[in-house]
Every structure is written in C-alpha cells, then in structure tokens.
Amino acid sequence: VTALxxxxxxVRWTHALDRRVTVRPVLADxxxxxxxxxxxxxDGRGAPVLVALRGSDHxxxxxxxxxxxxxxxxxxxxxxDRDGIPDVLSDxxxxxxxxxxxxxxxxxxxxxxxxxQGRLGPARVDLSGDGLTDxxxxxxxxxxxxxxxxxxxxxxxxxxxxxARSGADGTALYPLHRK
Length: 179
Known about the structure:
It contains no helices and 16 strands. The protein is mostly beta strands.
C-alpha cells in the first residue's frame, strides 16, 4: 500500500502487506487527527486480513484476521455503533458480512454467509430510521440466470435478489426478493 502526497504524487509512505489486495481500499479519519486513514483488505495463503493504517505514518491502527478469504467487494464505511467514528463493513465469500468498529477494529457483528457468487458491494442507507447504516446486499447466485429463446434469438435474464441487514446487529430487516 502506497500513500501519495501533493500534486506531484510524491510518495509519503509505503506499507508492505503480506497478502494480495484484490479490492480497492477505503479512506476515512479513524483516529481523529484530521488525516485520512487507509482501510485495506487482503487475502492469500489462507490468511485473510483487514487492516487500518494511520494516514500520517502507516502505523497499524488495528488488524483483523477473521474476515474471510475472497472479498466480494471493497470494505465499506458506515455508522454501526454511534461513537462518531466511521465503522467498517467487510464482505467475503467464505466468512460473510462483518461490521467492525473504526476506532479499534473490534467486531460489532457477523452474518455468516453462504457461498454466494455474484454479490455486489453493499449499498448503505438507514432503512430502519435508527440513525445507523443498514447494509443492503444485492446478488445473483447459481440458477438465477435464465435464457429465453424466441425463434433464433435468445434473451438473457438475470434475477437479482436483495436483502437488508440491520446496522445495529446484522439481523435481517427484509428480504427484498422472495422466491
């Protein structure tokens, strides 16, 4: 991970992460110093990681190794614990969805996932009106694709499913699509 500074893009710092990074990092001030900190998720060799790096000097603010390999989307920011510091949402193929305190990385909640392929990054909105961010997951799994034929041409249809989770504890608010 490399932080660039200024209009010329001078290298401010570089942090070696011993994992491959397959999703983009997110930026937020997690430590209150008015500088953007970096949250990055990596995986590889069966050892996933979600790490928050201090924007000023790349020191590790916190690190999690229980987020699961194969992130489905970049980490996302939201409000899950009302402490005024952005919190982090991680979504991985094998571990599911997890919300973590932006302040110290402690787990706020986990929703174990099925092997859902084709899940898109979570939308984040307060659906329940409680002031917390509720993630909305949209996905298409195996069997959700259909091709209809008419004459010599086919029309592909993709059946999307969505569900909303409570930002407070990860419980299902609503399935937005039912079979």
